[in-house]
Design brief:
Layout: H1 7-12, E1 31-37, H2 51-62, E2 69-75, H3 78-86, E3 94-95, H4 99-107, E4 111-112, H5 124-131, H6 140-148, E5 150-152, E6 158-160, E7 165-177, E8 202-205, H7 208-219, H8 221-232, H9 238-249, H10 254-268, E9 273-275, H11 279-285, E10 290-294, H12 295-309, E11 314-316, E12 322-332, H13 337-347, H14 350-360, E13 363-364, H15 369-379, E14 389-392, H16 394-397, E15 407-410, H17 416-420, H18 424-427, E16 430-431, H19 440-450, H20 457-474, H21 479-497
Parallel strand pairs: 1-2, 1-3, 8-9, 8-10, 12-16
Antiparallel strand pairs: 3-12, 4-12, 5-6, 7-10, 7-11, 7-12, 7-13, 14-15
Length: 498
């Protein structure tokens, strides 16, 4: 899930547009209005124009010189974006919300279907390809996940995610940690946050959705470990295992809410603090040793620590399970579908997807040779030896590359490569987060109670210092890209020498 600067962003930035667009008229049929997260698309460099400019040129060439305009707006949070839409004053053709928000937007009737929602599951790919020829460039695993995942529409009917959304970026939630300060066995479980050994060394997100999820995995860890044992003994299938994890992770009955509140109150006494964006800088500067984070932020921080401090951080998804998150494109109400489909198809081109992925550090849902080549360029061992790890990523790349190509030999696990492309064993223990639905109010009230105690003086000092550190951290822009460039350059230099 794309995570913006939030508090820091409110201090430093303003959205490109908080003022909505008026209803479409005949005169603006050639305008495409896009609403996306900040810093979530390739914005151009010395070699390539931005994705937006490339799309405009692509459209012009394809349509005999017809020119179009693209109005590009950004938002900082899913909630901010929904508030703008709910005013009714703003209209966008394409919007890029996160998974649980996609569900809510479908249920609230805020989006248009991409294909007929009544399309049978076995016909979805065929219908999608008619609209978007590049649809089959998306990872077959992610295509299937979207096609088989159901949510309720405004009429209360079960509809496929794929009928309404095209996956963009994806990743997992886990722990980024300093291996010099944290025991490898401890960090494999969610319980590390509650472990007195790491008092004031770990963080949780100042986000009810994500921290609720972490607490659920903690309070039901015994049940989840038993479930894992059943999978290992083949008492249950992989699909049954993932389905059960999904059910557990999304529990929101009264008993679960009560257990989560108790766990949250206990965690509050043990953690360094709640944060949204400052944790990825605090772990680089050594203020904390464990940061509960999204995989994309982990890559950014690992790259930055390596480049700035010569420090090596790791990333792990706890053994009990975790969230696999997605950001996806949806059509706004009364969208300019002709231009929207063209842009979506353009984004699904592996060459364009590789530009976006290289720019922002998150993992694209698009597969294909261009993506695989880029990943190998970043992470393939310079020399494949008996000490190299062979990781089979055919579960992700599937038929988008030649059979046998999706095996990557890497020297390091549990770092950038594993954060961007977890192995299959990790993926099957991850589940999609669902909208809280009618329990939303009860959970928000619980969250408010659990965090209601006033901050002590030292806590305010920590918050202020974290903001200052985050400001400094933002100045280290594009660090992840610099490290990958350096890594590739060193490889090329070594090859030339040989």
């Amino acid at each position: 899930m794309k995570k913006p600067f939030c508090l820091l962003g409110c201090l430093l930035f303003s959205s490109i547009s908080l003022v909505g667009c008026s209803s479409k008229t005949k005169q603006d049929d050639n305008v495409l209005r896009i609403y996306n997260w900040q810093d979530y698309i390739f914005e151009g460099d010395d070699e390539n124009d931005s994705v937006i400019e490339q799309f405009k040129e692509y459209y012009k060439e394809k349509h005999d010189g017809k020119e179009i305009k693209v109005e590009y707006y950004t938002f900082e949070t899913n909630e901010n974006m929904l508030n703008v839409l709910n005013t009714g004053k703003s209209q966008y053709d394409l919007i890029c919300p996160s998974d649980y928000t996609i569900q809510k937007m479908i249920k609230d009737g805020l989006v248009e279907p991409i294909i007929d929602p009544t399309t049978p599951e076995d016909k979805i790919e065929e219908e999608m390809t008619k609209k978007l020829p590049n649809y089959t460039s998306i990872s077959p695993y992610i295509r299937e996940l979207f096609e088989t995942s159901l949510t309720k529409n405004k009429q209360g009917e079960d509809v496929s995610w794929a009928s309404y959304s095209i996956p963009y970026m994806w990743g997992t939630m886990g722990f980024m940690y300093d291996p010099n300060q944290v025991d490898e066995e401890d960090i494999k479980s969610w319980s590390v946050v509650w472990d007195k050994k790491y008092k004031y060394k770990a963080t949780l997100k100042d986000s009810v959705r994500d921290t609720y999820c972490a607490c659920v995995f903690y309070v039901y860890q015994d049940e989840l470990n038993e479930l894992s044992a059943k999978l290992e003994s083949k008492e249950i299938t992989e699909s049954q295992y993932t389905a059960k994890i999904t059910e557990i992770m999304n529990r929101k009955d009264k008993a679960t809410i009560k257990k989560v509140e108790k766990a949250l109150q206990e965690a509050k006494e043990n953690i360094y603090g709640f944060e949204v964006d400052s944790g990825k800088s605090d772990i680089v500067t050594g203020k904390i040793a464990i940061n509960f984070c999204w995989s994309g932020d982990a890559v950014y921080s690992m790259d930055t620590a390596e480049e700035e401090n010569d420090t090596y951080l790791n990333y792990v998804v706890p053994k009990e399970g975790s969230n696999i998150w997605f950001d996806g494109w949806v059509l706004g109400k009364n969208a300019n579908k002709e231009l929207a489909y063209e842009f979506l198809n353009f984004l699904c081109d592996p060459r364009i997807a590789s530009l976006n992925m290289n720019e922002i550090g998150y993992t694209s849902s698009v597969a294909g040779n261009e993506i695989l080549d880029m990943v190998k360029e970043w992470y393939e061992s310079e020399e494949i030896t008996e000490d190299s790890y062979a990781v089979d990523l055919s579960w992700f790349f599937g038929d988008t590359v030649e059979e046998g190509e999706a095996i990557i030999y890497t020297d390091e696990l549990d770092r950038q490569f594993s954060a961007q492309y977890p192995d299959y064993e990790t993926v099957i223990r991850c589940a999609i987060m669902e909208d809280f639905g009618k329990e939303n109010t009860a959970i928000l009230e619980m969250w408010s109670r659990a965090k209601s105690e006033s901050h002590s003086l030292w806590a305010w000092i920590v918050i202020i210092l974290s903001i200052v550190a985050a400001v400094a951290f933002v100045c280290i822009s594009k660090a992840n890209r610099h490290v990958r460039t350096k890594r590739v350059a060193n490889k090329n230099k070594l090859n030339q020498t040989n």
